[in-house]
Design brief:
seven-stranded mixed beta sheet, single chain
Length: 164
């Protein structure tokens, strides 16, 4: 018989008896807790985001790129996105944001959002595959990416309010 640390022996015995599974939570699912929606391609959480532009309230379903890895990947290699879909890149603290379009197949509008949740600036129709820097006009707390031309089509502009 091979030697095993005592803790593993206990876990193995409990697992054989059906009393323990260290990788599975034993807590029952709450009826009031609903799993977060996830995007079928990226696997990222999807949330509702609104842009208040004048008297209009525009609704989008956006993927949340929260981690450094998720933000680095962004929408690279994606070939399509719905008209009311997008990706949001929230930051831990306000900063001068800089993006590029390396390996990004579809043209995008980049919407830079300030600490007051107002749009700082909109960069329309960023060129696919371009490595030119696209920079916020001030300290941003997030960047919203939409299909290229969508911001102009909907009248989204600097000063509009964003909520998510």
């Amino acid at each position: 018989m091979r030697w095993m640390p005592p803790a593993l022996v206990v876990l193995a015995m409990l697992a054989a008896l059906g009393g323990c599974s260290p990788a599975v939570s034993e807590a029952p699912a709450s009826a009031s807790t609903q799993p977060a929606a996830t995007h079928p391609e990226s696997g990222l959480e999807v949330v509702t985001l609104f842009v208040h532009s004048g008297d209009k309230k525009r609704r989008f379903r956006v993927e949340m790129a929260r981690s450094r890895f998720e933000q680095a990947r962004g929408l690279m290699f994606r070939t399509a996105m719905g008209p009311d879909e997008g990706m949001l890149f929230p930051f831990d603290k306000p900063r001068q944001a800089s993006f590029w379009m390396r390996n990004t197949v579809i043209p995008l509008d980049l919407i830079f959002i300030g600490a007051d949740r107002r749009i700082l600036n909109v960069f329309d129709n960023a060129e696919p595959y371009s490595e030119n820097q696209i920079i916020s006009e001030g300290q941003a707390i997030a960047v919203l990416e939409l299909n290229g031309g969508r911001a102009a089509q909907l009248g989204i502009k600097a000063g509009d309010r964003v909520e998510w």
